[in-house]
Amino acid sequence: MFRQLRTALRTGIATEPVAAAGEIERVGARLASEVARLFGRSLAIRQVDAGSCNGCELEITGLTGPHYDLERFGLRFVASPRHADCLLVTGPVTRNMAEALRRTWQATPDPKFVVAVGDCGRDGGLFRGSYAVVGGVADVVPVDAVIPGCPPSPAALLAGLLEAIGRPRR
Amino acid sequence: MNRLVYGVIAAMGIVAAGLGGYGMAGGAGTLRLAWLVPLGGLELTLDPLGGLFLGLIGLAAAPASVYGMGDPDGGGRGRLAYAVFVASMCLVPLAANTMTFLIAWELMSLASYALVLHDRESEESVRAGWIYAVMTHAGLACLLAGMLLLGAEVGSQRFADWRAAAPALAPATRDLAFVLLALGFAGKAGVIPLHVWLPLAHPAAPSHVSALMSGVMIKLGIYGLLRVSLDWLGVGPPWWGATLLVAGAVSSVIGVLYALVEHDLKRLLAFHSIENIGIILLGIGSAALYRVAGLDALARLGLIAALYHTVNHAAFKALLFLGAGAVVHATGTRNMEAMGGLIKRMPWTAGCFLVGSAAIAALPPLNGFVSEWLTFLALFQNTRLDAVGQNLVFTLGIASLALTGGLAMACFVKAFGITFLALPRSDAAAGAHEASPPMRLAMLTLAAACVALGLGPTLVVPVFGSVAAAILKTPPSATGGDWLTLRVAGEFASLSTAAIAVALAASLLVPFAAFWILGAARRTRAYETWGCGRIVQTARMEYTATAFANPFKRVFDFFYRPSKRLDIEFHPESRFFVERIEYENPTRSIFDDWLYRPALELLQAAARAVGALQSGSANQYLAYILVALLLMLVLA
To answer: Quick check: is A9 in a domain?
Structure first.
């Protein structure tokens, strides 16, 4: 405990000033109004890694940081599919994760929508045809929207989510 | 036979409780049998404080004995010791002179020693019994010295005479007597650092005895501390109260810290007894300090909090020990890591244990909450004292009580969750069975007592108030409030646990009512419990008690000083395949390392030095006699 406190005191403040981000703010404002209109101001997202290289995860994690801070737009990552409106699935779906993904989808309450993230999530990407891979996310669970990119930038992720929630759902 | 003996003891407990109630209500009585024992004779007196503790012993002994009736492996052996144990405990708060008190006290110690040695084959029990015997007799030596000192100074061995003569005694004598008696009683109460025997001895005894040892016997240490700090020696200097307060603060925090990393269910409960003794001492210490300052109403409040917590702790700790006993009997182990899933196999035990856990974690509306709330109030009012040093001591008490409350909560989340929830972690836990009917009856009675003491503070606080007033020799106050709300210290604070209980129950129903009124969709889709998408769930994937305790172990590493040992055996062909991993992360006791071991080493070194005189040679002994004779002649 004392060691942690000492380290914190020695390190001091290590953050950098924020650069202006015009595109993010524009997309974010529209996203916020859509989320407010459709989801009662809060969209709960469960992220599922179905076999990703973690490139997409790095970008998704960036969304939660102080720079993008997606919570101010009403989006929130939750710890269980039971709490989620939306599944954000990354990676080619490996054989090991196919059943887990299917169960996660089933455990998510209706109404729900699934967004496949990255080129791998779209169709297996670089790993398509591998013996260890089932295919894209759509080969395992119904997908409502795709955000392509390898990996998609945080801004692209926000834009993709905006597009996904604007669409009619099953 | 078994049932008869335990039935008689249970009936005896109820009679004792009735007598205690009579004493609390103001009934007094004295019994003198001068011929029975030498040096003052047997003398028993009933007064409000003694009545309270007598009632407590009786009310705890009754369910414990009922439990003993149904306990298939705890009952047979040790019936006589158990009967002597209960009877001598009943005598302690009634004793009115040194001789009677010490005989009852020692009988209680010896009987409990015999009960600790219940499992004679186990080396652990024998060691526990040995340490218990040493510690309890060291305490007895302190008590004996203190009582003889007072007896010699006052010229009487009767406690009533001490009370009358105390204000006239020299301050140094009173201080010395206080230190000796407080040390003796604190050792029995398990106050840190005199606690070492407690976590060893309590788990070793059969569970109904553990319940009485933890619930009642250590309370007699509290009884003694109350007598010493507030009654026999009159109004003492402020440092008496401050010492008790600091001891309480230290005991509460350190007791719960040890409990957090303990995975032996019964030992965990034993460490919680140390914690709760600390909380009681916070109340007693504040009462003593307020009394010196002349704030009678606050002194009464502190004492009410202490007495209330004493009774509450007896109720929930006896309940938890009985529940733990049922679990240990069903699974054959005390190790929590081998339990789990018991809520489905022993629902009654689990329900009662949950009530006890919520009560000890001070969750409203149960009894632990009320008495800890009162203790907080008593401590917070220290701003009315005009002494910076004392205010600092009070602040320490407040901080440690707050920390203790949080840690106790975490500890009982662990104790209940790991023991009763999830999947069974061993075959024994998977094959566990519900406790026998008498055991269930005993646990249900105590659980009902916890709920009643929580919901009815307006009924019990005036009773404790009159006992407190009798000790402090002040007129009884009107603390109590109306039938629903407890009011403390004028309009300073009020509490209605009944209203809290209603609000909690309503908040459970509100969402359902709201959905019904709003006409929400009632379409349901049944699907299996969410298990993180895993295909197979086994007990090896579960959260363990060790994992639960680990964050605390890291945060408080300066206190636990954990040592780590990791032993990995790799496959001879490749280091990527592990054949066997052994991991150990034990904590070390600072009291063993820095207090008891050096003291024992010093003692042994001294014994070796003196042992040099004892050579075994007759010539040398003759020389000693000669030298001694010569010295005597020269000096004379």
So the answer is: no
In this prediction, the residues of chain B whose per-residue pLDDT falls under 50 are none
Whose CA is closest to B292, among B371, B225, B216, B237? Answer: B237
Rounded to 10 deg, the angle between the B457-472 and B48-70 helix axes is 130
Query: What pLDDT, on the 0 to 100 scale, is given for residue A170?
Result: 47
Query: Can you give the CATH number for the domain in which A151 is found?
Result: 3.40.50.12280
Distance between CA B207 and CA B203 in Å, rounded? 8
pLDDT tens figures, B269-299: 999 999 999 999 999 999 999 999 988 888 9
Phi and psi for B598 in degrees, rounded to 5? Answer: -60, -40
Q: How many domains does chain A have?
A: 1
- Least CB–CB distance from A106: residue in B527, B556, B558: B527
* Joined tokens for residue B438: 């008498």
Q: How many CB atoms lie within 10 A of CB A127?
A: 19
- Within an 8 Å CB–CB cutoff, is residue A103 touching chain B? yes
How many other CB atoms are there within 10 angstroms of residue B496's CB atom?
20
Provide the CA A160 distance to its chain's centre, in angstroms.
Answer: 10
Question: Which amino acid, B295?
Answer: L
Which pLDDT score, from 0 to 100, does residue B73 have? 61
Question: What's the pTM value of the predicted model, to 2 decimals?
Answer: 0.87
| Cross-chain Cβ contact B556/A1 below 8 Å | yes
CA-wise closest residue to B308 among B483, B453, B480, B92: B453
Residue A143 domain boundaries:
21-166
Number of neighbours of residue B194 by Cβ within 10 angstroms:
25
Tell me how close the Cα of B555 comes to any Cα of chain A, in angstroms. 5
Position A69 in a domain = yes
What interhelical angle do B123-154 and B171-189 show, nearest 10?
160
Query: Tens digit of pLDDT for each residue in A51-63?
Result: 999 999 999 998 8
- Can you tell me whether residue B183 is helix, strand or coil? helix
CB-based contact A100 B535, cutoff 8 Å:
yes
Does any domain span residue A68? yes
Instruction: Give a yes or no: residue A28 inside a domain.
Output: yes
Asked if B263 and B585 count as a contact pair (C-beta separation under 8 A), the reply is: no
